[in-house]
Amino acid sequence: MPKIDVCFSPNLLDLYDLQGKTAVIVDILRATSCMVAGLGSGVSSILPVATLEECKALEIKGYICAGERNGHRVEGFALGNSPFDYMSEAVKGKRIAMTTTNGTQALVMSSSASQLLIGAFLNLSVLATYIKQQANDVVIVCAGWKGKFCVEDALFAGALAAQLPTFDIEDDSTLAARSLYESAQTNLYEYLLESAHYKRLSHLESGKDVRFCVEIDKFELVPILVGGEIIRAI
Ligand code: 3SL
After folding, report:
1. Structurally, how many domains does the chain consist of?
2. Residue 49: its H or E element
3. Which of the residues 9, 12, 49, 128 has an alpha carbon 20 to 30 A from that of 146?
4. Ligand 1 atom 9: the closest Cα is on which residue?
């Protein structure tokens, strides 16, 4: 049986051997939700980069610059980090270069995995089906916040683990994530009202992004990193 493991922070990645495994990167609020929403709405590809400078330099190559620092759109960038920015007509068919505080960093730090997939509640079931078909060992890498645990990423890890019941559980992080999801699944949005990142995003209109990011199965696609860019695997 393939194995499943949950890494609660990129700062813990040294404890995990990603070689030969599938890493599912998750940053529910909001980077990976933006990626799923964008590719599901017609964006052609997303190039994740670590720094603002790398991102800006891609503009002359035809990329649209997107991202945030500390939750706020970067000055001079066309897009911020709201999933709604990624679903507009203006970005259909376009390539986006993206840098965020945690999500794109988690991706870059997981590059030793044999395959990198993008997870969000927005594509939960199609992602689970894809992983089941491949039957490869999987590590869910939670982006967290500046190395710290984030409950929304752990909830997603639990939701995905719950859809992969035949996978062998490697250690207790998967059990913990699953129990957390089971206790919150009937009302994810309300559960997140007390979370640190919900509070950090309080400058946004009335929780609109957060509500959207906890919608389950809104999109039928699996984003994958190929040659440095995120595209649709299916
Ligand atoms: O850290 C990240 O990658 C972002 O998703 C954080 S924020 O939701 O845009 O603040």
Report:
1. 1
2. none
3. 128
4. 71
Any domain includes 234: no
CA of 110 to the centre of ligand 1 (A): 17
Q: Is the CB of 68 under 6 A from ligand 1?
A: yes
Residue 233 lies in a domain: no
State pLDDT tens for residues 30-50: 999 999 999 999 999 999 999
pTM over 0.85: yes
Coil, helix or strand for 202?
Answer: coil
Domain that holds residue 22: 3-224
Residue 206 pLDDT:
65
Residue 28 alpha carbon to ligand 1 centre in Å: 8
Terminal-to-terminal C-alpha distance of the chain: 24
Residue identifier of the C-alpha nearest atom 7 of ligand 1: 71
Q: What tens digit of pLDDT does each residue of 150-176 get?
A: 999 999 999 999 999 999 998 999 999
Is 101's C-beta closer than 6 angstroms to any atom of ligand 1? yes
Nearest to 78 by CA among 57, 50, 59, 100: 59
Q: Which atom in ligand 1 lies closest to the alpha carbon of residue 105? A: 3
Q: Taking Cα atoms as reference points, which of 139, 178, 131 lies closest to residue 17? A: 139
Domain CATH for 202: 3.90.1560.10
